[in-house]
Amino acid sequence: MGASAGPEIERLIALLAKLPGLGPRSARRSALALLKRRDQLLRPLAQAMAEAADKVRACTICGALDTSDPCAVCADRSRDETLICVVEEVGGLWALERGGTYHGRYHVLGGLLSALDGRGPEALRVNELTARVGGGVVREVILALPATVDGQTTAHYLADRLSNTGVSVTSLARGVPVGGELDWLDDGTIAQALRARRPA
Q1: Handedness of CA 162, 164, 168, 170 (dihedral sign)
Q2: Are 179 and 151 in contact (CB under 8 A)?
């Protein structure tokens, strides 16, 4: 930023620039907006972030983020426990919930298989998924993974791992664009993809 900003401002900008979708310029603009409206934005945001850091944890059942364990979705007895929708990260879960058309359970993998990044099945929550499926309650696993090379590789791996369980394994329909992330899709596309799911 230059000599005109103190180290506190530079640190704020550097941290903001690490957020997805924010580069150095956007981080500067965001920092300036926060500093100009410190009582309306900066202090409440700092308090909300501190509370989130202290209280938010991963659900031991599905891996979603919540302030309670089990999370609100896993604790909701009205949800269909025979359906598990597998997502890469919590953002995918939030996107599906925003659509309001899915009423089953979730499983957050915590990433995708990636040979380039050296991420194998042991780095993901695959064993937890197979344990949940092996409990005898689940009848269908929906693979709601990105239409990317890593997403498809992960989907094929999971379908293979679950092939001997007797559980139906389906994938979202190809209404999800290639290279698309669930968190960026509109609600109609997500709803259509869920309705048109097919065997993996």
Answers
A1: positive
A2: no
Backbone φ/ψ region at 5: left (φ over 0), alpha (ψ -120 to 50), beta: beta
Helix (H, G, I), strand (E, B) or coil at 136: coil
Amino acid at 106: Y
Q: Which domains does the chain have, with CATH numbers?
A: 7-55 (1.10.8.420), 65-199 (3.40.1360.10)
Residues 192, 130, 119, 63: is their CA dihedral positive or negative? positive
Token pair, residue 108, equals 């957050």
pTM for the whole structure: 0.80
Query: What amino acid occupies position 129?
Result: L
DSSP summary character for residue 185 = S
Say which DSSP state 114 is in: B
Establish whether the linkage from the previous residue to 70 is cis, with ω within 30° of 0. Answer: yes
Helix, strand, coil percent values for the chain (each to nearest 5): 45, 15, 40
pLDDT digits (tens, 9 = 90+) for 74-128: 999 999 999 999 999 999 999 999 989 999 999 999 999 998 899 999 999 999 9
CA angle, 174 then 180 then 186, to 5°: 85
Q: Given pLDDT bands bounded at 50, 70 and 90, which one contains residue 1?
A: very low
pLDDT digits (tens, 9 = 90+) for 180-198: 788 888 787 788 778 777 7
